[in-house]
Specification:
alpha+beta; Cathepsin B, Chain A; twelve-stranded mixed beta sheet; two-stranded antiparallel ribbon
């Protein structure tokens, strides 16, 4: 009898498999088998009851890990103040400017300093609009169904970005202190203006593709950019071409007052820093070959600027570069998958913060490479890397970043991450070439491997 039952079950399994292969749907037999796997234990009931009334993140918070992490760091870049990007996707811009302001505050012993994000964001949006319109002109010979054309019209504009935008914009337009062109409601809440600009750009894009006018496309594009500029002025204000600024000492006493252009201001205080040529973006992406240089096609902020370029390195080598920079009191542009295992009320990034496995009764075993390949993880946010805590052997125990979510967020406006989290969810850091070994710098001489602009790993950081 037992043998007959076993054979019957085997036949049932075969018939279920055949049904699945033939039609691909869930059959009645499959559903019966699926339901047999469901237990109804007391623990199962308790989890179901809790999930019915509470957020998953709260229920999964690991009670054994609630104590605040040690906030001592063996090495920390000297910084002052916390910025706030509010309801905008400008983390990339805040991060890049925070790197510069940390240096200027320390060099001049200033009481405080914040650069105008509005000033550079104005030109970022103008340049991106030009990038889209010129891209439409360049691809006019291709059908609308072409992947590149489709990508352009799907992504005409974004308030997000990455370090290449910082480097190209600063070197082209300079910088100004925040009081010269302050934030306003629209810069702090960019969605509505961005949506209107995208609508206008798509309209202009169709006009350029269907152009019957004999005027050169560049002349037509210039007329379009006049309208874009007018929209930007109404939303964000008029960017200054000259301004007066008074430098104060650490006690707040005035030292000198001078007139500047945005470019002369940068030249006076950062003249020895070439953001376009003195820095290298290194990345840890285990889904792609290490020791190779990669370039993302059409992924830039300025049409005549640089595509997103990076060197892919193993995580230990990325750590070594970051440690060298921090030890020399130099902050870095840093990006990661910030939403993973973030416990906001503590301001920590720690894979022990949440126990999803116990709550849901399943395991989540994918490693970093597998998460990247399946689009489960990727860089989403940029911050300023400012501290590392090393043990006696020189190994990192934890790291800290200066965030741009305001002084009341995280730990005093910062986020502290364990080294284990750093390995799993850190992706990019921008390092001054002087901290990079000569043999590593030689890798930059190779021809970059071009990746498509629509690669989901390279979405703008917000």
């Amino acid at each position: 009898m037992k043998k007959i039952v076993v054979c019957a079950l085997a036949l049932l399994g075969c018939s279920t498999l055949m049904a699945q292969q033939d039609k691909g749907g869930i059959t009645a037999e499959m559903m019966q088998e699926i339901r047999l796997g469901q237990t109804n234990s007391e623990a199962e009931k308790a989890a179901r009851n809790a999930l019915a009334l509470n957020p998953i993140a709260e229920l999964a918070t690991n009670a054994d890990n609630l104590a605040m992490i040690d906030t001592h760091f063996s090495h920390r870049v000297r910084t002052k103040g916390i910025t706030d990007q509010q309801q905008s996707g400008r983390c990339w811009l805040f991060t890049g400017l925070n790197v510069l302001r940390a240096k200027m505050i320390d060099d001049l012993d200033l009481p405080s300093l914040v650069f105008s994000h509005n000033y550079l964001f104005f030109y970022d949006q103008l340049e991106k609009c030009n990038l889209f319109l010129q891209g439409v002109i360049d691809t006019k010979h291709l059908p609308m169904e072409d992947r590149q054309v489709e990508w352009l019209f799907k992504n005409p504009l974004s308030d997000g970005g990455q370090f290449t935008g910082v480097s190209n914009l600063v070197m082209k337009y300079g910088v100004v202190p925040s009081e010269v062109m302050p934030e306003n409601y629209q810069t702090n809440n960019t969605t509505q203006v961005s949506n209107l600009l995208k609508l206008k750009l798509r309209e202009f894009g169709l006009i350029l593709r269907n152009q019957k006018d004999r005027r050169a496309p560049v002349a037509l594009k210039t007329e379009m950019l006049k309208e874009i500029y007018s929209m930007l002025v109404r939303a964000y204000g008029v960017p200054p071409t000259e301004f007066e600024w008074t430098r104060h000492d650490k006690d707040g006493n005035p030292v000198e007052t001078k007139r500047y252009t945005p470019q002369s201001f940068y030249a006076e205080y950062f003249g020895d820093i070439d953001l376009e040529n003195d820095f290298v973006m290194v990345m840890n992406d285990p889904s792609r070959e290490y020791y190779k240089v990669y370039e993302i096609e059409y992924d830039r902020h300025v049409y005549d600027g640089d595509n997103w370029l990076y060197l892919n390195l193993p995580i230990d080598e990325v750590k070594a570069l970051a440690i060298a920079s921090i030890k020399d009191n130099t902050a870095m542009y840093f990006s990661c998958d910030v939403g993973k295992y973030l416990l906001s009320k503590k301001g920590t990034l720690d894979i022990q913060n949440f126990d999803y496995e116990s709550l849901m009764g399943v395991e989540f075993p994918m490693n970093k490479e597998e998460r990247v390949r399946t689009f489960a993880s990727g860089s989403s946010h940029a911050m300023t890397l400012i501290a590392v805590d090393l043990d006696e052997e020189g190994n990192a125990k934890k790291w800290m970043v200066e965030n741009s979510w305001g002084p009341s967020s995280g730990w005093k406006g910062n986020l502290i991450m364990t080294d284990e989290w750093f390995e799993e969810y850190m992706f990019r850091v921008v390092v001054d070439k002087k901290y990079i070994p000569a043999e590593t710098l030689k890798l930059l001489e190779q021809k970059p491997i071009m990746l498509p602009s629509w690669d989901p790993m390279f979405a703008y950081e917000e």
